[in-house]
Amino acid sequence: MNTTIETILNHRSIRKYTDEPVSDEQIETIIQAAQSASTSSFVQAYSIIGIKDDEGKKKIAEFSKNTHVEHASRVLIFCADFYRHELLAENKGESIADTLESTEKFIVGITDTTLAAQNAAIAAESMGLGICYLGGIRNNIESISDYLGLPSHVIPLFGMTIGYPADLSNPKPRLPLHHVYHEGKYNSNVEVYTNQLKEYDETVSSYYETRTSGERQDRWSDQMTSMLSKQVRMNMKDFVQGKGFNKS
Amino acid sequence: MNTTIETILNHRSIRKYTDEPVSDEQIETIIQAAQSASTSSFVQAYSIIGIKDDEGKKKIAEFSKNTHVEHASRVLIFCADFYRHELLAENKGESIADTLESTEKFIVGITDTTLAAQNAAIAAESMGLGICYLGGIRNNIESISDYLGLPSHVIPLFGMTIGYPADLSNPKPRLPLHHVYHEGKYNSNVEVYTNQLKEYDETVSSYYETRTSGERQDRWSDQMTSMLSKQVRMNMKDFVQGKGFNKS
Q1: pLDDT tens-digit profile of B92-141?
Q2: Is the domain of B165 the same as that of B53?
Q3: Contact (CB<8Å) A190/B87
Q4: How far is B85 from chain A (nearest CA, A)?
Q5: Which of A18, B21, B39, B247 could pair with A164 as two cysteines, CB 3.0-4.6 Å apart?
Q6: Cα–Cα distance between A102 and B75 in angstroms, integer?
């Protein structure tokens, strides 16, 4: 196994950091790594906003309801972004708004942004830094968007805290490989599927039991059903459509 | 610079492969790497379908209109997938269809799938393999979905070819770092932005000129305006809604 794969397999979200700061040079390398990811038809449909001042981190912590954000050295906000493309088209007297509004370009924007973000994550982790994604920025997406001054065709998708880890838990066990990976065709044999999920429930329970000295024994299936029975962030459709995305 | 960052910065899409096969063990490591990526609230909302037989590759090549697919050792199809969650909820007599239909969960599905895919890409490249993403599978998304036998709440987002590279071009230059990376707030100063894009047009022209011995001098801004003025894959909304995504 090479060191890159070791870094990847060793991933866990880090929410506790030491006071050691992440440098501007490290952030620059992380952004270069992000930019090196594949991009759909070379479109590079994203921007990244870096926050290092205490007030900015406090705001993001409040809006995202993630208190740990205040204690990270850096926060990056990853945004799907077609603003620059819109500007270029306008300068040529052309309109591309109809295309940008399509579900297809919404998919492209999210995909491009996420490819870049995961490169940033791996690059940071390869330097010994810890990261945690913040889907929580969508808890108050309007406020975050206003605070960052995002123009039309720019939406904040998720954040990422970065810092030196003060806490290294074990990586969380994932679904059985052959549940997620199918050969040739999708294998939705309900019996096989259900048995794999039962096996995984036991794996996850043991993980929590060991980690909490027996206090917690959550099953993944209960966690998922509980989480997914709650309607959250139901304003997302209006927000993204208001920014010119996902309308047609 | 460490070897992981070197691998990341050295990325270019590979569309020509040698005949050397990628082994099942390599694919297994690549899938483990994919599964190690962060996942929104531990939801693991994706599946990966691996294709190695000639007929399967031929089908994907036809549907995606990417002839190079036939010559890759392996093809992976990355799908956003809430089918297993739906099954778990059904088994408990609960319904989560309303939540799964939200724009929020559409974002979660695309993000989770893409984080996993980019880990797969980096893992493959770290082993000396080359990869190319296939957004083209969305050219015939209905046919691909039928061919793979995808149930409700599963949508194919993109593919990835994997093989030993027969051709190593130079990495393509990316947008200026400070055009994509903003500090503190989004900087949409139109003059600065426009100048950065002009500078980048020259960079991209030089890249193509060198690569094609002067035959091609495309400017990025022309490529983008031309591509984005064409409405493509406008059936995406109906398709994803038909699969139970992105309705509310």
Answers
A1: 999 899 999 999 999 999 999 999 999 999 999 999 999 999 999 999 99
A2: yes
A3: yes
A4: 7
A5: A18
A6: 27
Nearest to B106 by CA among B70, B71, B153: B153
Contact B193 A234 (CB under 8 A): no
From residue B8, give the alpha-carbon distance in Å to each of A74, A77, A137, A244, B24: 21, 20, 27, 32, 24
Indicate whether B143 and B24 sit together in one domain: yes
Nearest to A15 by CA among A121, A204, A144, A164: A164
Do B59 and B182 sit in the same domain of this protein?
no
From the list A42, A102, A123, the residue facing B5 with the nearest CB is: A123
The predicted-structure confidence for B55-91, as pLDDT tens digits, reads as follows 999 999 999 999 999 999 999 999 999 999 999 999 9
Distance from C-alpha of B76 to C-alpha of B159, rounded to nearest angstrom: 5
Provide the residue range defining the domain that includes A200: 177-217
Which residue in A has a C-alpha nearest to residue B83's C-alpha?
A188
Same domain, residue pair A108 and A200 = no
Q: How far apart are alpha carbons A83 and A207 in whole angstroms? A: 44
